[in-house]
């Protein structure tokens, strides 16, 4: 295919150079965005009288034809083309003739690719938000079912205090709610229309940039042409949101992996979301969780790659920026692939409440409440902490739980203990007393779930379509 920019050159580019610089193998996925952007641009050119209206209409008709063929799966993309923009323009000119050559009036590939990637980033942000909405819906539903399911809460991966499964799941709900907000920020940053920036200094043609933004559904236009073509902050914001979301998925995956071991024994993953071993018949491996945990590092690499590409670039556009798309596409694809199975995997997982409560009881998770009981009797907390610690030490040596101790044994350590101590340090009481907003008491968690449901409903209602 002849280069559309070849007029300046006396000899063709080397085939090695063609292969090295070609981006169509990966930017072909932008063709729909490219065609939509060109349709808006051609419409505006005709309305402004920059090109004849007849040519504008012919171009739009031709572009719609290409778009229809692409949507129908009948468009063959020429992989020998330099990039998706060159292919689309050449395909248009082949279909409609000379009028197709007017399409690029007042436009550069620099602002064209900035436009395409922004359209794609908006769509990607909206899709990820929709997937997160579904995941959140699942977490909230599970939390509703487990507001009274007692389990140990951990610090340092050591049993700490009794909580509920609902409380634990709602901690992840908070993380994913923040992720929804982050992708909303990514959408907003991408929602600025750069076409009209030209190569870096705008154009002398009387373009109506606001009209193009209106046709494409952008809320604003860029305010500086140099920044318009060289800005990739919106992709970095997307990748940062993606990396953070993957980190949250990885943390959840790690917990599901731990809970499903024999050592924890508090969760069984459905067979549909596990795999076996080629040599060990007994194995049931949580591979979906492990792959998500592993792919998190890959997405971190995508973010670092783009940050590194951009860190030393002088204004304005540089060919280095062609490297933005593969990192962006890979991170986006990876996150979507990881998010898709989680709602169903969580719905079909079998939690084991009895094992969870037993684990909480055997882990001295009520030791803080034992100390608080003594504080209620007038003892300073530091002294009460020492008494409780000493009783825990006794139980560890004897293989017992705090609730296994007799009143006489408790009073031997501290005479302030009375018969009501056993109710005070029951796991249920320990959870129920933590009723402040943000605490694990069933009522507090129920209110948290309600707030999250209200928030999610508003998010769905205002979702980008």
Keywords:
62% helix; Fumarase C, Chain B, domain 1; 465 residues; Ribonucleotide Reductase Protein R1, domain 1; mainly alpha; two-stranded antiparallel sheet; Fumarase C, Chain A, domain 2
In short:
The chain has 465 residues and is mainly alpha-helical. The protein has 20 helices and 6 strands.
Strands, count: 6
Helix content: 55-70%
Topology-level CATH name of the largest domain: Fumarase C, Chain A, domain 2
Portion of residues in beta strands equals under 5%
What strand order characterises the main sheet?
1-2
Unreliable parts? none
Describe the structure.
The model has no long low-confidence stretch (mean pLDDT 95). This protein folds into 3 domains: 6-105, Fumarase C, Chain B, domain 1, CATH 1.10.275; 118-146 and 163-200 and 219-351, Up-down Bundle (Fumarase C, Chain A, domain 2); 359-456, Fumarase/aspartase (C-terminal domain) (Ribonucleotide Reductase Protein R1, domain 1), CATH 1.10.40.30. Strand 1 and strand 2 (158-164) form a beta hairpin. The chain has helices at residues 15-21, 24-27, 31-47, 53-72, 84-96, 109-145, 165-190, 209-216, 225-230, 233-259, 287-310, 324-339, 342-348, 353-362, 367-376, 381-398, 407-413, 421-424, 427-433, 442-461; strands spanning 150-155, 158-164, 192-193, 220-221, 267-268, 350-351. The chain is mainly alpha-helical. The protein has 20 helices and 6 strands.
């Amino acid at each position: 295919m002849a280069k559309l920019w070849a007029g300046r050159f006396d000899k063709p580019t080397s085939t090695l150079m063609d292969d090295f610089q070609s981006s169509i193998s990966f930017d072909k996925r932008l063709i729909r965005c490219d065609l939509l952007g060109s349709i808006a641009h051609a419409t505006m050119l005709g309305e402004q009288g920059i090109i004849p209206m007849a040519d504008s209409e012919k171009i739009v008709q031709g572009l719609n034809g290409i778009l229809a063929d692409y949507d129908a799966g009948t468009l063959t993309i020429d992989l020998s083309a330099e990039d998706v923009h060159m292919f689309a323009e050449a395909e248009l000119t082949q279909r409609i003739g000379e009028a197709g050559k007017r399409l690029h009036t007042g436009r550069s590939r620099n602002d064209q690719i900035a436009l395409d990637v922004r359209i794609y980033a908006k769509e990607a942000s909206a899709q990820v938000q929709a997937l997160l909405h579904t995941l959140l819906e699942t977490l909230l539903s599970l939390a509703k079912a487990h507001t009274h399911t007692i389990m140990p809460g951990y610090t340092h991966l050591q049993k700490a205090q009794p909580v509920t499964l609902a409380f634990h799941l709602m901690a992840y709900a908070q993380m994913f709610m923040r992720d929804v907000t982050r992708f909303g920020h990514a959408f907003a940053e991408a929602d600025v229309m750069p076409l009209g920036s030209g190569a870096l200094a705008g154009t002398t043609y009387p373009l109506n940039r606001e009209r193009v933004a209106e046709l494409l559904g952008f809320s604003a236009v860029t305010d500086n042409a140099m920044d318009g073509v060289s800005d990739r902050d919106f992709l970095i914001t997307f990748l940062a949101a993606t990396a953070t979301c993957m980190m949250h998925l990885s943390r959840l995956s790690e917990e599901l992996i731990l809970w499903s071991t024999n050592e924890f024994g508090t969760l069984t993953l459905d067979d549909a979301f596990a795999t076996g071993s080629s040599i060990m018949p007994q194995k049931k491996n949580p591979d979906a969780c492990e792959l998500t945990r592993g792919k998190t590092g890959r997405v971190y690499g995508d973010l670092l790659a783009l940050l590194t590409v951009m860190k030393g670039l002088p204004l304005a556009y540089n060919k280095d920026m062609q490297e933005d798309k593969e990192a962006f596409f890979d991170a986006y694809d990876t996150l979507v692939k990881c998010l898709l199975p989680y709602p169903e995997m969580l719905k079909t997982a079998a939690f084991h409440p009895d094992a969870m409560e037993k684990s909480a009881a055997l882990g001295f998770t009520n030791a803080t409440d034992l100390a608080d009981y003594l504080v209620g009797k007038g003892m300073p907390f530091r002294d009460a902490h020492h008494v409780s610690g000493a009783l825990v030490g006794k139980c560890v040596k004897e293989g017992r739980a705090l609730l296994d101790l007799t009143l006489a044994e408790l009073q031997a350590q501290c005479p302030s203990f009375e018969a009501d101590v056993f109710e005070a340090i029951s796991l249920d009481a320990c959870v129920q007393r933590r009723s402040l907003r943000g605490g694990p008491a069933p009522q507090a968690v129920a209110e948290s779930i309600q707030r999250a449901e209200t928030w999610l409903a508003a998010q769905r209602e205002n979702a980008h379509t």
